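Sat 14:20. Reprocessing the chain from the morning session after the first attempt stalled halfway. Input below, unchanged.
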Amino acid sequence: MEFDQELDTRGLLCPIPILKTKGAMDKLQPSQVLKVVSTDPGSVRDMEAFARQTRNPLLHSRVDGKDYIFFLRKEG
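Finished this time. Tokens:
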């Protein structure tokens, strides 16, 4: 999946990945996509909740070994 920016939060535990995701999303332009990579199993639930609460769609998520990978699109 294509993305505009990547955020590596590997090794960080809740709530740090979400706080860093929010900061990165704030810097994006509408329609840009952020890829987030995390090793925190709780990030799956947290990213889904973040997407709902901020109305920035979670376009895709997957697990790749120990990494949890998320793609979020910034809404206007």
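The longest strand covers residues 58-64.
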